[in-house]
Amino acid sequence: MHAPPAPAPETLTREELEAEVRRLRAQSASLAQMFEQAPSFIALLSGPEHRFALTNAAYQQAIDNRDVIGSTVAEALPEAAVQGYVALLDAVYRTGTPHRATGARFDVQPVPGGPVKERYLDFVYQPITDAHGTVSGIFVEGHDVTERTLAEVALRENEARYRTLFESIEVGFCIVALKFEDDRAVDYRIVEANPAFVRQTGADVAGQWVSAFAPDLERHWFDTYGRVALTGEPAHFEHYADVFGRWFDVRALRTGDPAAHRVAIFFSDITERRRVEKRAEAGERELRLIADALPVLISFIGEDHVYRFVNKAYDDWFSVPADGIVGRDVRDLLGPDAYAARKPFMDRALGGEAVTFELDWPRRDGRHRVAEVRYLPRRTREGGVDGFHVFVHDVTARKQTEAELERQVAARTAERDQVWQASSDLLCVANLDGYFVSLNPAWSRALGWTEAEMKARPFLDFVHPDDIEPTVAAAGGLARGEAQLTFENRYRRRDGGYLWLSWNAVPRDGLIYASVRDVTEARRQAEILAKTEEALRQSQKMEAVGQLTGGLAHDFNNLLAGISGSLELMQTRMSQGRIGDLDRYMTVAQGAARRAAALTHRLLAFSRRQTLDPKPVNVNRLVKDMEELVRRTVGPSIHLEAVGLAGLWPALIDPGQLENALLNLCINARDAMPDGGRITIETANKWVDDAGGRQHELPPGQYLSVCVTDTGTGMAPDLVGKVFEPFFTTKPIGEGTGLGLSMVYGFARQSGGQVRIYSEVGQGTTVCLYLPRHYGEADEEDVARRLAEVGRAEQGETVLIVDDEPSVRMLVTEVLEDLGYTAIEAADSVAGLKVLQSDVRIDLLVTDVGLPGGMNGRQMADAGRERRPDLKVLFITGYAENAVLGNGYLRPGMQVLTKPFVLETLASRIKELIADR
Ligand code: ADP
Ligand code: MG
């Protein structure tokens, strides 16, 4: 194929020629324009030395508009030669092979030694060949990609920074992919995990399925992450992971494509924070124990007149139990009259003033009582008052003592006056200037001078000339504050004679008080003075007692403020996440608590009694009711077991105090087992004989024991000898008060019992409380008495009903009595069996299957049949205890009734069984 030959020029007309020239010019102009305006840079280099033949505007701009046409690259762009680009051009020229570069760095330096511009270029060096195939030049074309390249670098750096962060943060982080079965997450794989996560889990678990490294992980984790993956709602929670034995704060959010079921998880180990929180709680509890142990009303009333805190003493003072008082309004609790009496003082306290006043506050039984009430405002950090603490003491006894004292003082004063006037002893007061200030009438009687005459002259005027010198010396001694107790001199009488006087002189407040006697009467008068002084000392001591008690309450308030302030700060810090500061506040609070405890101890020592409220107590029930509290206090790493002896005697004690004591013992046990262990609380009946009584310092008799055993550090024998001392503690400052065991000891002794410690280092400790048995309306005696009655009555049929649930016994008894039967009740298998083994007439046994006392109903019935082979039995049971009852195969004469039942059914079954002879 050949293009038609262009018409020969000579054949063109002139017009045609001109048009062709115009066309060519236009074409070349547009080409030049294209070349000039091309967005890529273009240059044409000719010859082996790469001389610039042509550059476009973009190229010129790239090299900072240097004049390069006609120069070689090496001359025009020296920095290109330095950076190796000329060598590259040489290679292209020599080999004829093009060279392409992407993102090549080229530092442009328009002025040698001047500033450098960092550029990145994509370019091609394309060799140009002539008609013979020989390279004659190089075509350079390219783009400036500096901006793109820098952006990429920044991105890479950013990514590196995030990676560093991700690798170095303390928070565990991982991405997991969940596996679902029927909409339920059943497993997950750790797609990616940072080092902190790996540290917390203790193994490199990246890429693994959780079922492989933590097979026992609780369902909670799967369910929570499953929910996040399905709903896309983030989760934030704190949870205890059994498998790791740690607490975690966890945040989880869905990431990536919802269908991929991926969840990003942040983990922080907060075990330490939880521990601090627990300790703060324990501190508060300890404070509560102390406040409750005080024989003083302590409360806090808010500015709205509502009780916020009351201690246990309120139980004694009010007919409402203390826990019913918190949240109530003062006026509502005390009634309008009592409120009106207190209102002005409350207003003053809320105005920031500490007020003290006394009130008649009759006891609940109407007996007279005087109360000293203190309101101490509590200041907020901003300086306002948000309520006040109340301290109320029973000062009846003190008042009586004071009144008695006043009476005595008055009597003494009168007596002294009488002595002064009527005494045959010479009594006087003199000043240090050497004059008498006052003299009693005995002086006139003894010396003959009137009082006025003696006061008018210096006393030396009356002194025998030979005695002046020693008298001056003695007066000098008095002026220096030295008493003169045996000094003697002679005084002149009005009639000129002299009397030997023995001076008993004391300086006080710039005066000299003297009792003077003639030698014969000296001894008697000295005695009177000594007695007077003793009485004075005694009265001062009584006053000190009163002041001290008041002062203690004030100190106590300050300490409470320290403690509650610290607790508040801890709360604030915790909400700010500043856990590191907590220990400091903890130490402050516990230090104050210790000092408060010390004060308490002194208060108790003063009052020398702790109000005990003993009543018959079922100790097993008390222990059972406390189990949950104890378990929460000692934490999950300690296994708690309570073993209550069936048939435990009741004890006559203050139940609140026993709770305190047990809690203290369990806290001690926990402290002795920092790495976990086991606490056992056990009850038992004990007979203490004469020898045992001597050994345990107890009267012989019947006691029950409550023992708390731990598997902790134990105590060496010399330590055991010290632990009951108040304030003895081996715990670091701020952790122990040293009051726990002394409280336990005080309680046991005041209750007529004893405490004993059995401990072995490294093995553990048992602390046993022995408490006196209460001989009251115990179940056992009840049964015995009823047996006696039944024996006498000897009429009608008799049914024995055994059930530990009193309401069931009552119900059945009522039905039986309606039917005209006699009922005997027993609450457990031991008591029941006793009746069955006696001679009492029993026509039918009605019994529960699950029974306390070591035997179930079936076993008891079988044991009863050994003696009464024909005994008829009706089991009443809450659930089908088939195995116990022999899988439905009951022996003849035995029947089952399932609870709940209609009373008529019960009645007809009983009639039926008894009638069936
Ligand atoms: P605190 O517990 O405040 O130290 P306590 O009076 O309760 O005061 O106990 C006094 C000391 O007796 C403790 O510091 C501890 O040394 C020791 N102790 C008490 N109970 C136990 C126990 N179960 N195991 C080991 N040591 C104990
Ligand atoms: Mg303790």
From TrEMBL:
Output the superkingdom of the source species: Bacteria
Q: Does the keyword Phosphoprotein apply?
A: yes
Q: Which residues form the PAS domain?
A: 412-469
Q: Does the keyword Phosphoprotein apply?
A: yes
Positions of post-translational 4-aspartylphosphate modification = D848
Q: Which PROSITE patterns match?
A: HIS_KIN, PAC, PAS, RESPONSE_REGULATORY
Q: Which UniProt keywords apply?
A: Phosphoprotein
- Ranges where the Response regulatory domain occurs: 798-914
The EC number(s) attached to this protein equal: 2.7.13.3
Q: Where is the signal peptide?
A: none
Q: Which Gene3D superfamilies match?
A: 1.10.287.130, 3.40.50.2300, Histidine kinase-like ATPase, C-terminal domain (3.30.565.10), PAS domain (3.30.450.20)
Q: Which reaction does it catalyse?
A: ATP + protein L-histidine = ADP + protein N-phospho-L-histidine
Query: Which Gene Ontology terms cover its molecular function?
Result: phosphorelay sensor kinase activity
Residue span(s) of domain PAC: 355-407
Q: Where is the Histidine kinase domain?
A: 551-775
The record ties this protein, via Pfam families, to:
HATPase_c, HisKA, PAS_3, PAS_4, PAS_8, Response_reg
This protein's name: histidine kinase
Lineage of the native species? Bacteria, Pseudomonadati, Pseudomonadota, Alphaproteobacteria, Hyphomicrobiales
